[in-house]
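Service request form, structural biology core

Requester: graduate student, group of Dr. S.
Request type: structure prediction, single chain
Budget code: on file
Notes: please return the result as structure tokens.

Sequence provided:
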Amino acid sequence: MKTQNSNAFEALGVSPVLAKNLLKAGMTDPKPIQEEAIPSMLADCDLLGIAQTGSGKTLAFGLPVLTKILSMGDKRRPRTARALILAPTRELAVQIEEAIHMVSKGTHLSTALILGGVSRNSQIKRMAQGVDVLIATPGRLMDLVHEKSVDLSKTDFLILDEADRMLDMGFIKDVRQIAKLVAKDRQTALFSATMPNEIEKLAETLLRDPVHVEVAKQGTTAAEINQVLHKVDRRDKKDVLNKLLTNPALSSVIVFTRTKHGADAVTRNLAKTGYSVAAIHGNKSQNARQKALKGFRDGTVRVLVATDIAARGIDVPGISHVINYELPDEAESYVHRIGRTGRNGAHGEAITLYDESIESARLKAVERVIRMKLPREDVPPQFGPLPEKPHSDREGSEQQAGDDSHNSGREKNKAHRRKRVFSKATDRKQGSRKDAPHNASHSENATKEDGYRVSNKSRKGNGSRRNSEKLDARSDKPANPKRKKPNNRKKPVRLRKSVRRAA
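Core staff response, request fulfilled:
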């Protein structure tokens, strides 16, 4: 016998088997965006959805698409997908697939992921027999389309998730090209947290008489998130961050920086202080990013340092705090950043460290977007002692921050070569001084020999040779006796050899 809560999704038109899986997962009541989006999409309408991260939009477009595909049967065409979901980042694409797997247990529905950092051959093989739902990032998908490994001409559903992020990452041109390859009679849905002019133009091009669904005004932030701003000089931000983290209430924290270099610097600082920390940004390998996220999810990593693009799609439950170490260049990114916390009705806090001398313009832009003035507060006192540092600063920084650096091996080899060259030069210098008599005149000559070597290395070509001859002439004895040859010596042997050869 089905419960009333199970019928809540079925009442929207969701397939009974999908509704049953939702109930098993503890999802009893549809969220506002789901209540508005699901009936519209099941009625074959295009959809324009404005919703923040964590609002339930993945199932808002996933449930109606899966319900429709279930009614089509299990026959698929090679190299095709019945539905295409485009996402801006690998992490978001993976999470969308996980959500689809969760609700489609016990059905014939199949999925495939096409994204960068993963073997192309495995993706091509996966698409060979065709799939029901393809989740992809635009760049890698375009590569496989050009190789004719993927055919989108028979795709019935096109979903664009977090379109504003795709705009920020420069994917809009690829998105337009992909849309042209999908069936003309397709159904399209576009979701975005903000609606800049470029996204409005994209929606006008791709959507036909769409239903507008907006569960929160553009730029607004969740009511469950407490936002605060601390005025901090940029030179003091590292110390302030260390002090904030002494509060155990900051149990699971994402720290946002503007640049990859900044993310690495903050990570090294926190690791040296003794915090469990990891970083994700565009220079990290796929394995390194997955390892960092896994540690953050299971609690072995307390602090995750991230750039805006890398953090897109992170859906980790229980994030207590978001710290804006620097305000973002794009004001809309502030909304996405703090949306990592305060999800599913839970309380969250967003702390911004603000340097008035260089960030005033960014702050004004953020406050225009969120339509409120961020409350200013003094930096709270240190809650407790800093954590115990690792055995050595070098050890802590290498273990926490440097393991995933692309150039770490190269730098170690360079350092090793420099050490060998230095030790050899030192041995030669000590050996020459041991053999030399201990008198003043010879010490002076030894100094001149050292000067000769340095001078000779510091110049190139004939200039170095001329310089060495001058030094030798000034010395009481030749700096390098083997280089001196008698000027009156003739070369009769060479002449006799030539005569013999001529004979």
